[in-house]
Amino acid sequence: MNFSEVFKQSNQLCKVSPDGKYLATCVQYRLVVRDISTLQILQLYTCLDQVSHMEWSSDSLFILCAMYKRGLVQVWSLEQPDWHCKIDEGSIGLVSSRWSPDGRHILNTTEFHLRITVWSLCTKAVSYIKYPKACQKGIDFSTDGSYMALAERRDCKDCISIFVCDDWHLLRHFETETQDLAGLEWSPNGCVLAVWDSCLEYKVLLYSLDGRLLSTYSAYEWSLGVKSVSWSPSSQFLAIGSYDEKVRILNHITWKKIVQFEHPAVIENTKATVYKEVEKRPAEVRDEFSLHNVTMDSTLFSTQSKYEICSLPVQIPAVKPDPDRANPKIGVSVLAFSSDSRYLATKNDNMPTAIWVWDMQKMSLEAVLEHTLSVRCFLWDPCRPRLALCTGNSKLYLWSPGGCVSVQVPVEGDFQVQSLKWHCNGDSVILLGKEQLCLCYMDTEQEEKLNS
Amino acid sequence: MGEWRVTNASMDPESSRISHVTISPSRHHHVAAYALPLSKQSYSVISAFCTEDNVLQCISYLNQELASLGLSMCLEDRSPEGTSLNAVPALNAMYELLQIHKRTMCTLEKMEEEQLKQSSTLEHLQISNSRLKDQLELSKRENSGLHETERQLQLKIKTLQSCLKTEKEEVQKLQSIISSRASQYSHDAKRKEREALKLKERLSQLLVDRKDKKIAIDVLNCLGRSDGKRSVWRTAKLVASHESDMYKTLLSDYETSQKALIMENAELKKVLQQMKKEMIHILTPRHQPASGAAADDSQEQVELDEERDTSREALDQSCEHAREQLLNSIRQQWRKLRNHVVKLDQASHMQNQMEPNKEMIPLETHEDEMARMRQEVQQCKEFIQTQQQLLLQQLNTSFDDETAVFLNGCYTLEEKERLKEEWKLFEEQKRNFEKERRNFTEAAIRLGREKMAFEEDRAAWLKNQFLNSTPFTDRRRCSSSDGQSALSIRSEPEIRMSSVKAKRSKSPIYSTFSTPKPSRTSLVPSTAELYRALRLLSDSRDSSKHSNRGQWQESSTTEDQHPHVKSSIQAHTGEMSIFTFDDHSVT
Q1: In this predicted structure, which of A13-22, A163-172, A361-370, B406-415 has the lowest mean pLDDT?
Q2: Which SUPFAM superfamilies does the record associate with it (chain A) (predicted)?
């Protein structure tokens, strides 16, 4: 495993182009585009203000930089550095900006969710979509980029509009049976739309592309409901994480629950492996380093840690949430399927230090990773069943079916990994600190070792 | 009453005298006056009472006193020389007085005793009384306490009930409040939302109306579409094409899912068919050996065959037609299999239950088997005896050598044939046994093992016997056969032991041991050898013993896979040699 040198970044704005060739980072008001292999600067653009959002177009030709405070969007071309585009939303404000899947339109959401403005870079044409709903995930494009589902609120009723992204033709418009729609998500095959209600009610609705209600699922009533929803890449499973600390898996044929994954505080009677991060004392570290004759300033003084396999039963430290506060820190908030749909990783908010990995073939718990700090971010390798995660310290943690490792990021100074991003071929991970970033290259040997 | 008793008890020291007084109340003062002096200073007072001078007075006084006491007052002897003490009546009076005194003393004692008793009982009663009083007091207090607590509890209940009522009311109130609030909230929310919507609309209107110059796009030059095509005019055709596109994607999705389902279905069907086949396979051979055993089994067999036919047909048919049949047949078979499994389970369960009293159940079969075995052994013994008799007869009638040899040959041939017959019979029996044994449960199998061991023993013995009985095995024959017969009768526990030992060894022993070949007897011994064997044993006893043992060991070592058998046989040989000795010393 190798690490690159450290680069500056701000606002955690750092993205790899969809084709995997370039790395764009924002440093204050500058946009830097590097070659991912050499890490040499290819282009440098200067924006009008500090960039608050940055996004690659799907064809990796353009980069969108949004400055929400100024209501401005600037688009840069990689091929033609002279080419420029500036979109000013004016006094109506800007809260969100994104590319359309074709990379020729920009969708800007105005303040107060008054409307969504669709700017065409081909014709300079502008079109408005009224009544967008301000919610957790009110807009979603299908994977092939041909359809967009948009949650709307009209006459105190939730409805969904499905647009054809090609020419923004309204394909379908239908009301939903939700009290307060919280989010929607296309299945990866683009034929089913999962819609879920706000946390006050456990309700998941499944609509077909043509607006037919396929199924409704509700696990329970009178208690805080859905917290997160995720499709498996195969579209076969719909995982629903809820406030009752459980994940329910629905199948794609009957839309009924197949299995329910619980997150108990005490793990027992399971075949799962429980990895616990154990911090080693610095003294031992020094010994070890003197033995190995390695001199690294940063790692010498920071505590080393490693995973140890715990014997069952294991108590997972759990935080008791404050019942009087809104949005209590309890329940499954993040769900992520591995790229091959084989594994599901979950995080239960009242056990912030633990990540649970479930085997979707055996429908059982595969592993639990317990850390000393609470997990900030975890992502699956886009190509392999390999999970990378960080806990806000200077370590990168990796899990694969073969085992589990923690790697100290050998960077001078204080580098705390706040979040991470995989390169699309899965060969490297971008580690984002507070103001810095660093690339971590996975070597195949390491991986083999991990798997064996 | 109590008080009187108390006062009486307080005068305890005097009580004896008082009680005495109560008997004769009229003489109270007198007796009291006498009693005191009488008890203590009898002599001095008497001396003081009567002197030389006042004898007469004394007499008269005593006379008077005696009269008053109701005794004969004839102390005075009115003689001319004056009244003098008449000795006889005086003595009588004295005696009477003494008697009275004794009696009074007696009664006094009794009274005292009684008094003591009564006082003690009184005391006891008083104590118990006081104790009871205390108890009463205590219970009264307790009672009052309990009453108090009861009252308090009732009060509490009342307050709690009232509390409950108020709580209930409150809950109801709160519920109504909540519901009203909820409705109000939703109403308000809707109102607010509408207001917000209005505001938004107004805002957007205002922003649009102001013709905000700032809202603009500034592009250097327009880009081409990502697909390189030109944009198309919005027409009805385009709308239709969108619709058709959507349906196409939906259709393709459904097609793919259908394909996947078909694939899965096919796989499942394959599995089902395989399962069915295997089920048939499992179910059929089970019934074939037991075809003669049970009627319903055979019936089932028939059913199964039918089913197999139908299912085969079903498999050939298209799935839609066959589905029901297939499912039905599978279900039936599954049911059968399940029943069978359940039966097996029950059987095993029963077995498990039987385990503790293992000794009990198989005893009947065991004994049965044993009886049969014994019978067989008996038969064999008889057979051997006849053989022996014949041999002896042959030897006693001193034929010349040739005829002897000839006869011997005849006998052996006859014997051979008989043995063959016997063996055939035996084999048949054995087969029957094996069949039966197969049907037995585990207990029976155990028994079978025992039997096997027994048989093995017997076979070995028979073999040996057979070998010995043939004339060419010269002098050993008689002795060993005799010894063996004696042994087989006497050492049954040992046989059992050996059978137990053999149980542990493998079953194949049985087959290897059970086929002693009669062809071994084909060699014809000479008469001289026979003579030596039977009559001249005494001179070569020792050597025979040794050789005998050697022979046995040799035979046992040939089957060196079965050490248990060997040891048992060796044990037998030891005993056998002793028997042979005895036998011949008698003859």
Answers
A1: B406-415
A2: YVTN repeat-like/Quinoprotein amine dehydrogenase
> Of A208, A243, A244, whose CA–CA distance to A227 is shortest?
A243
Subunit contact B217:A91, Cβ cutoff 8 A: no
d(CA A147, CA A309) in angstroms, rounded, equals 46
What one-letter code names the amino acid at A355? I
pTM for this one?
0.59
Q: Which is more confident, B370 or B468?
A: B370
> Does the ipTM surpass 0.85?
no
Q: Considering chain B, what percentage of its residues have pLDDT values greater than 90? A: 18
What residues of B are in contact with residue A252 (Cβ under 8 Å)? 257
The domain limits of chain A are: 1-130, 135-262
Gap between the Cα atoms of B367 and B62, Å rounded: 114
Report yes or no: B260 at the A interface, CB cutoff 8 Å: no
Put simply, whether A452 touches B (Cβ < 8 Å) is no
CB-based contact A181:A195 (threshold 8 Å): yes
Do residue A209 and residue B246 have CB atoms under 8 angstroms apart?
A: yes
Q: At what angle do helices B442-469 and B476-490 cross, to 10 degrees?
A: 150
Q: How far is CA A405 from CA A274, A420, A451, B325, in A?
A: 13, 16, 11, 56
C-alpha distance from A101 to closest chain B C-alpha (Å): 10
Q: Which of B220, B246, B255 to mutate to test the interface with A (most CBs of A within 10 A)?
A: B246
What does the block give as tokens for A416?
A: 């705390």
- Rounded Cα distance between A189 and A129, Å, is 25
The CATH homologous superfamily of the domain defined by A135-262: YVTN repeat-like/Quinoprotein amine dehydrogenase (2.130.10.10)
Q: CA angle at residue B474 from B469 to B479, to 5 degrees? A: 65
- Chain B residue nearest residue A124, CA to CA: B217
Residue A86: list chain B partners with CB under 8 A.
217-218
Q: pLDDT tens, A430-446?
A: 999 998 999 999 876 55
Q: Centre a 10 Å sphere on the Cβ of residue A103 and count the other Cβ atoms it contains.
A: 21
A159 and A176 Cβ atoms separated by less than 8 Å: yes
Q: A80, A159, A191, A234: which to substitute to probe chain B, counting the most B Cβ within 10 Å?
A: A191
> What does the alpha-carbon distance between residue B178 and residue B172 come to, in Å, rounded to a whole number?
10
Hey, what CATH topology would domain A1-130 get?
Methylamine Dehydrogenase; Chain H (2.130.10)
Fold equal for A1-130 and A135-262: yes
Three-state SS letters, B288-337:
CCCCCCCHHHHHHHHHHHHHHHHHHHHHHCCHHHHHHHHHHHHHHHHHHH
B564-to-B24, B212, B457, B474, B568 alpha-carbon distances in Å? 112, 112, 11, 29, 6
Q: Rounded mean pLDDT of chain A? A: 87
